[in-house]
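Morning F.,

Quick status update on the modeling queue. The single chain you submitted on Monday has been processed. Sequence for confirmation:
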Amino acid sequence: MRILVTGAAGRLGGKLLTSLAERGHEVSGADIVGDNVTRIDIGDFDATRALIADVKPDVVIHPAAWTDVDGCAKDPEKAIAINGFGTQHVALAAANIGAAVMYVSSNEVFDGNSSRPYREYDVTNPINPYGYSKWVGERALVNINPRHYIVRTSWLFAHGGKNFIQAVLNNAAAGKQLRIVTDEVANPTYNEDLAEAIGQLVETERFGIYHMVNEGGCSRWEFARYFLDRLGQADVPIEKIVLADWPRASAPPHYATMSNLAGKHIGITLRPWQEAVDAFLTQEGLLK
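Structure tokens below.
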């Protein structure tokens, strides 16, 4: 299969380039920055259409996005331009040549008011500009290209980049007081596991909406407490706070845990988040 990956200079996009190639696909990457990728700004419709027409992929995997959640809150029109209309550009360009599109979306399309993990076809209701911009991208793709996958994920952690685990460990090593919220709950998701699941999904041609997250939900506090304890740092204190104690530009949903119901239906599952964290720590050389 010929596959074009947008956002290929990012952690997920870069991992997809290698993992999809290992699965035997012909893979190329595009991004606005980075080495060994085709330079493209998905905000430029003509350029996006020209690139996709030239590559002629069977499927475009589209993780490219503006993921600065607080930045999106400060400039919501820019967020829609990149995450919403940028996805529209990809969807239109792919539809013009009969290619499928897999769009990587977010748990923040939900409002966080559910009493159970969100399923794929639950009603969306984003409460912040980032979530809204990702929802706009979802709707654009659904309305334009019937050959679509929407893959929602959350709390991604990857090797070589900035993420929650590394931030907490760095602050703990520096002796800083850790203050972490107990009322923001979602699924920590390992970049390697998500890339593997995407590779499996794209080979099925079972279009639709999927939640691709490591199994199980937890609060930010529980997440941090788990990996600190696993690394023998149970004596490192973490002050429990709530979202209201941590003012920020964007308000995340309180409870946005997702259930991978559709993936399980076709045989694609991700391991529990605790096992994924252990694998990450082991790969980083932190857990023996």
